From TrEMBL:
This is Bifunctional NAD(P)H-hydrate repair enzyme. Its EC number is 4.2.1.136, 5.1.99.6. Residues 107-117 have a biased composition (Low complexity). It comes from Streptomyces cinnabarinus. NCBIfam families: yjeF_cterm. Residues 10-246 form the YjeF N-terminal domain.
Length: 511
């Protein structure tokens, strides 16, 4: 299991540990790990050009100490100090002792004002806003920008877990220069400008190829949009003694393998669970077929279908038990999936919600379900909205959900007293309490019509097999994401192909 802890927890555990260790030990551990990761990325340290972006906190300290280690191995290291008077004193001294140089960098000075290797001098004037640049003619690159442009590696130590809001203008300009440069960019602890706890990005942020994070992953490193800024994430152990329950957790192959329902010698189709699918309409029969396709691959012993698309379902999947009597009279099931392609059939949704078994509500079902009835249910409820549907359920704009996915999914779970799976490039699953699960196996090719119907069937099937809602949702998202990758293989993919590839995902996870 990959886990992530929020800033408050990191700070508390760091305090405990620091009280027992000589001063500066943790920063040295962090810097050592950062230097190793930098050397790995550079390949050859000797003769390489390394630029450190240094803010006013300990994040900058990490960068300076790592820069000192690289300088000792023969790299040419220049630190751009955003606030020289507040830069980490010990780190500055270490860098200078190792032969590194420092440059004052509110990015105002023109390139002519900077000489590479000029130690301890301002890189030009103090103008830090484009409006303050010398008038007349297009402004050339600043000294800092030229250094970044020529670098092989940029270490982003502008701000770490102490960051508040988006980057300030002078820091934002360095982030833009780093993005333009061909240099590899390593974010120290997390990309400056992203919110460690939520994954929100307010304005400019560093775009990293690699993030070297200390002690634990931070939630923001696993959730979009911030995840996209982090690149590959490498965790450096600094010895933190973290509490049992993380803020966020991400299943890995071994976790999924442990959770998958596997039939024993005594199993028959009823003991393995029957999943009921109440989906599709005369207008959208395909949604029923796809939900059934997902359900057949989810580990339940049988799939029961109710709705107007029975013929279409049977034509594709003759093993389905089809009924046209409606959910209440269809026969026993251990879980229901309701909503995909349901159109305006509110009566079916209402009948399903009355059942005393776990219910998965998706798509049209999310719109048609009576909210008080959902809240009052005693059996499990799993809701599977995409960002647009989540926005409608919360009464906010879609962009608000997309920008703050973690708080949106938590809020939905609390408001509807349900487990909620929020679909997207990083799918999140939140129950009313406990760690939120994040899934990152997906691919953007999965954003295809019908793909969500397959996911619903799959997750519903896992519910019927007896998995709790959080496990059913996160295991389904994991398998579905993998299946999407296999089916797409770098090219557009249809939902049916995703359903077919679930078996391969299942086998790979169990191997
Ligand atoms: N506390 C510890 O034991 C350890 C901390 N470490 C490092 O220390 C970092 C935390 O250090 P700090 O608490 O000093 O905080 P940071 O260095 O993350 O940031 C604080 C400074 O950044 C400035 N700042 C805040 N928001 C900004 C923004 N949007 N734009 C520009 N500047 C901004 C603040 O004015 C403040 O001076 C971690 O992320 C990690 O890199 C590591 O050395 C490991 C050990
Ligand atoms: K950083």
């Amino acid at each position: 299991m990959r886990t992530a802890y929020g800033v408050e927890t990191v700070r508390a555990t760091e305090r405990q540990l620091m009280a027992r260790l000589p001063e500066g030990t943790l920063m040295q551990r962090a810097a050592a790990g950062l230097a190793v990761a930098s050397a790995d990325l550079l390949g050859r340290v000797y003769g390489s050009r390394v630029v450190l972006l240094v803010g006013s906190g300990d994040n900058g300290g990490d960068a300076l100490y790592a820069g000192a280690r690289l300088a000792r191995r023969g790299a040419g290291v220049t630190a751009l100090l955003l606030a020289p008077e507040r830069a980490h004193a010990g780190g500055l001294a270490a860098l200078r002792r190792a032969g590194g140089t420092t440059v004052h960098s509110p990015a105002g000075g023109r390139a002519a004002g900077a000489t590479e290797g000029a130690a301890d001098r301002p890189a030009g004037g103090s103008a830090s806003d484009p409006a303050e640049r010398p008038a007349g003619g297009p402004a050339g690159p600043t000294a800092a920008e030229v250094l970044i442009e020529r670098a092989d590696l940029v270490l982003d130590g502008i701000v770490g877990i102490g960051g508040k809001g988006g980057l300030r203008p002078d820091a934002a300009r360095l982030a833009e220069a780093a993005e333009r440069s061909r240099a590899a960019v390593i974010a120290v602890d997390l990309p400056s400008g992203v919110d460690a706890d939520t994954g929100q990005v307010h304005g400019a942020a560093i775009r990293a190829d690699l993030t070297v994070t200390f002690g634990t992953h931070k939630p923001g490193l696993l959730i979009d949009p911030a995840r996209d800024f982090a690149g590959t994430v490498r965790l450096v152990d600094i010895g933190l003694d973290l509490p049992e329950e993380p803020a966020l957790e991400a299943l890995q192959h071994a976790d999924v393998a442990r959770l998958l329902p596997v039939p024993g010698p005594e199993s028959d189709k009823y003991r393995r669970g029957v999943v009921g699918i109440a989906a599709g309409s005369a207008r959208y029969p395909g949604a029923a077929v796809l939900a059934v396709a997902g359900a057949l691959h989810g580990g339940a012993g049988a799939v029961r279908y109710v709705g107007p698309a029975g013929d279409a379902v049977l034509a594709r999947f003759p093993e389905t038990l089809v009924s046209d009597l409606g959910p209440a009279k269809a026969g026993r099931v251990q879980s229901w999936v309701v909503g995909p392609g349901a159109g305006d059939d509110a009566a079916t949704v209402a009948q399903v919600l009355e059942a005393d078994v776990p219910v998965l509500i998706d798509a049209d079902g999310l719109r048609l379900a009576d909210r008080d009835t959902v809240r009052a249910r005693t059996a499990l409820t799993l809701m599977t909205p995409h960002a647009g549907e989540a926005a409608a359920l919360l009464g906010v704009a879609r962009a608000e959900v997309e920008g703050a996915r973690l708080s949106a999914v938590r809020e939905l779970a609390a408001r509807y007293r349900a487990t909620v799976l929020l679909k997207g490039s990083t799918t999140l699953v939140a129950a009313e309490e406990g760690a939120v699960r994040v899934n990152a196996t997906g691919t953007s090719w999965l954003a295809t019509a019908g793909s969500g119907d397959v996911l619903s069937g799959l997750a519903g099937s896992l519910l019927a097999a007896g998995l709790p809602a959080r496990d059913a949702g996160s295991v389904a998202a994991y398998l579905h994401g993998l299946a999407g990758r296999y089916a797409a293989d770098g090219a557009p993919v249809g939902a049916q192909d995703v359903a077919k590839a679930i078996a391969r995902a299942w086998r790979d996870v169990r191997d």
